[in-house]
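queue> holo job accepted (zinc ion)
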Amino acid sequence: MKLHVLGCSGGSAPGHQPTSFLVDDCVAIDGGAITTVLCEEGQEKIDHVLISHCHLDHVATLPFLLDNRFARQRRPIRFYGSESTLDDLKTGLFNNRIWPDFTQLKNRKSVALELQIVHEHQPFPVAHLKVTAHTMVHPIPCFGFLVEDADSSIFIAGDTSDADAIRAFCADRPTLKAIVLEVSWPDRMEELGRIAGHVVPKFLAPALPLHPSAELLISHVKPFYRDEVLTELRALGAPMRILEDGDVLTF
Ligand SMILES: [Zn+2]
Ligand SMILES: [Zn+2]
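queue> job finished
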């Protein structure tokens, strides 16, 4: 399984792309940085987008992906998410005011967009992968996604303030190769982390190690706090990799 980090920031600033991952070139997880990173050929390959939740840093480029693909697409793009997330996208973004309702648009070959509601702990196929959603602790409904192929699996957590719940979900998964976990702010912003539903390093510390063998990959650091957060994470003394935009990992 190939994981391409299109963006791993919890915000937007020069040199920091909002959250978006790409598995095996064809399945995106969140859409914060699809059209700002991938060229036309790369965008054409994406037929599936798993959406953790509808905060803008996770969906910002989805309207442009649909627009770029529409005129020539031969098959629909499918978005997967909770009923709440897809409903919010439809009423708040693809509402024919902010952006067209692409579920109602079709060219000569295809409807533009299909929405597929997925439910927690009910695995569903996505291209050649099997995906299982797990609920995160966040102010709005948010899923993390366990993504599996024949040989391995990775868990890409959505936004959350509860690292310990992720450790519990990932236990007893021997094929798990990596956990992507968000750490957004430094410890001094602990209160905001609790309110806004984000991890700070001191929330992570008691949950370590998250898994006996899976690699811990850190994402979603807020751009203007990156140096401070990285210093605090290193001080935890636990093995982890801080993701960077453009990283490509193979599992
Ligand atoms: Zn976020
Ligand atoms: Zn969020």
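queue> The chain has one domain: 2-250.
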